[in-house]
Design brief:
By secondary structure, the protein is mostly helical. Helices cover 39% and strands 4% of the residues. The chain has 3 helices and 2 strands. Strands 1-2 form a two-stranded parallel sheet.
């Protein structure tokens, strides 16, 4: 798993610095290797950054072309993720859902 050292993914240690944080324990238990990019360098995580941009563009488009209230943006995001998980990409001919 690669992340940008964001607080939601970087809880490697508890506040006292002595024990592993909850997320670090989860990764260790499931034999998942964490890779952290350098701070302030989003280009090292380009694929994820591009996917996030695509999702935000889809959500903005859905909200701007509808009359639904803005507080439903999370539902629009869920819909965008659902759609993208069922569409093949150029790199992989199967959908993420199929994989």
């Amino acid at each position: 798993m690669r992340s940008n050292r964001g607080g939601e993914y970087y809880s490697r240690y508890t506040e006292n610095g002595q024990a592993l944080g909850h997320f670090a324990k989860f990764l260790q238990e499931h034999v998942i290797i964490a890779q952290y990019t350098m701070p302030g360098s989003p280009d090292q995580n380009g694929v994820a950054e591009r996917r996030n941009r695509t999702l935000l563009d889809m959500v903005r488009s859905m909200l701007s072309n509808s009359n639904i209230p803005k507080f439903l943006w999370t539902e629009a995001l869920k819909t965008a993720v659902y759609i993208l998980n069922r569409v093949p990409t150029k790199a992989v001919q199967k959908t993420p859902f199929e994989l």
